[in-house]
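STRUCTURE REQUEST FORM
Protein name: SDR family oxidoreductase
Source organism: Streptomyces gottesmaniae
Requested output: C-alpha cells
Priority: standard
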Amino acid sequence: MTFSNSDLSGKVALVTGGSRGIGAATAVRLARGGADVAVTYVRGKEGAEEVVGTVRALGRRAVALRADSGDPEEAAGAVGLAAEALGGRLDVLVNNAGVGVLGPLESLPLAEVDRVLAVNVRGVFLASQAAAARMESGGRIITVGTCLTQRVPGPGGTLYAMSKSALVGLTKALARELGARGITANVVHPGPTDTDMNPADGPYAAGQAELTALGRFGTAAEVASTVAYLAGADYVTGAEFVVDGGHAA
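Status: completed
Returned output:
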C-alpha cells in the first residue's frame, strides 16, 4: 500500500526505535513530508545519527535521543525531550520500538516475557500517555504492530503475537478517548519486511515470502508510506492498516 505525499509542514514527530529499518524509513518519510523529526535508539547511535543527517539534509530539524522503551522513565521522558528539542510541541508519535522473541512456549523464561511486554506494551502505553498530554487537536498516534496479529502461521510466535495484539485494543481505546480532542490513533501491521533484522535474503526468508499472496518481502519504505499517510489523515482513527503483501489473505 502506497499513498501520495502527506503535507506535514510545520509538524513535529517522534519515531521510537528510529535508528534502522522501518523506524528509520519512517523518520525520513515524515521529513520528506515537511515534519521535523526526533528518533530514539538504544544501541544504534551511529544509525540514529545517520538518520538525523538525512533529515537535516532535507531541510528539516532533527535530533537523536537515547531512550529505552523498556524503561518506564525513559519511555515517557523521550516524549518531553523530543518536544523540547524541536520547539516545544509534538504533533505525531510513531510507536515503532519493539523487541521480538520467538521460541517454544514452554521454554520462554520469565525475564524474556517481562522484557517483551515492557517494551512492546508498557512502553507504547507510556509514550502514548505522555504524547497525549502534550498534543493539541490534529495530534496523531501511530503504532507499528505486526501481521502476526492477523494470522499466526506456525508455532513459536505466542509471546510476540500476544504483545502486539495488545496494541490493537490500546489503539481502539485511544481513538475513543482522544477523539473529542481531535487526536487520532491507528495501528499499522507490517508483514515480512526487508530489514537488517529480517533480511529478504536471510535463511528463513523464502518461507516467509511464500506465506504472502505477492510472494515477496515488503520494504521499509512501503510501511513508512502508510505511516506518513496516517500522520496527515484527519478522518481515520481506531483503524488497523495491514501492509503485509497478503500474508493474512
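Reviewer notes: Residues 12-243 form a domain with the Rossmann fold fold (CATH 3.40.50.720). The helical segments are 21-32, 45-57, 72-85, 110-134, 158-178, 205-210, 220-232.
Form closed.
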